[in-house]
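User: Can you fold this complex?
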Amino acid sequence: MDGAARERMLAGNDRTARRNREEFRDRHVIAVNVMGAPGAGKTAVLEATARAMRDTVKIGVLAGDLATDNDAERLRSAGVRAEPITTGAACHLDADMVRRGLAGLPWRDLNFLFLENVGNLVCPALYDLGQEFNVVVLSVTEGEDKPLKYPTIFQKSDLVLLTKTDLLPQLDLDVDLLRENLKIVMPHPAILAVSSKTGEGIDAWVHWLQGHDLHRSPACAATVTTW
Amino acid sequence: MDGAARERMLAGNDRTARRNREEFRDRHVIAVNVMGAPGAGKTAVLEATARAMRDTVKIGVLAGDLATDNDAERLRSAGVRAEPITTGAACHLDADMVRRGLAGLPWRDLNFLFLENVGNLVCPALYDLGQEFNVVVLSVTEGEDKPLKYPTIFQKSDLVLLTKTDLLPQLDLDVDLLRENLKIVMPHPAILAVSSKTGEGIDAWVHWLQGHDLHRSPACAATVTTW
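Assistant: Here's the predicted assembly.
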């Protein structure tokens, strides 16, 4: 695609994203764009989030995937309102896909709407969906260097969820170096370490989310990051 | 990009890829396109491959990356001839990037040229580079479902390298289900399990490569997969 065509396409996406955002805000629905590499643990962390939040708030998920609706099925099995968005060859969600996906989800009554993006650290960073927050799910097995190698997605994120921390004893991950690398690329570096398997850190993540719930002051969110 | 523009772009890429392939074959250089998600272990497996092969054959790497030359630096530190290809916003290598990258690498004397693609399970599958073989590096932490979720890249691959097998005791990965899923999408399913950390399986992978070395009969390669 040439530069001008790309600009037009992104401008069209931004218009739809703004419309999505306005409607989410009108209904007090907090939309969270959940991005990360394939296998980073996006669906698992949303399952753990649903278990932790189910008695207090209503959550829903639009689960983006190239070719299957496996993630939406997994989430439904965990009791979450979930709808698949099958993107075909597209390596990311866009605002219009979200708009169409909403038709299948009773989203207006939700407190949180998670937009689980396609597993990819490149393309999703370019497309605004209308979300309130961007979260990157990064597994401890992916290495310290990922923020420097995929800077745009980290630069645009409000929070990094470092997942699979139960595997840390088996790895040589230098968490301090990872934090330093995040500081280089994130304007407001924030990281929370979680294990969807053991539940470690899920409370802090839920606390972070609830700091933004229903337009309460987001200031308290800063106190729960482990930075 | 509309369909026609995309077709034109891919046709142009295919022409350059054919030219690359002819030149590689003329020089008896086996080019291997190494794909995989961010953090799957592509660079680590190439480092282990270099250690295992250094006394017998000459290998080189063109290391694709969005924003850094870290992988090329890591490989050079391991004694490998390596040249970075910085792709900017592009989520994949293309044939022309490879062509330009070759200018910095004494590739004509190599036995194997590895084209380490950008960490991504979507975009790289669409671009022929002129390689002889496609290999997908898939880490044991990524889950059994990835072949079904990213079918195109697995469908086009000659071999899946299942990496980080040293972590298997800590995981619930169902390797049999992963194999079943690969059988669904790969025309000629082939998998080798390796650990770049312990060296497990690296010999079999080197054997697989050498089955294709210098246009010797590739038939023996079939005997070393662990299918």
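Chain B has eight helices and seven strands. The beta strands of chain B are 30-36, 59-65, 81-86, 112-116, 133-139, 159-163, 191-193.
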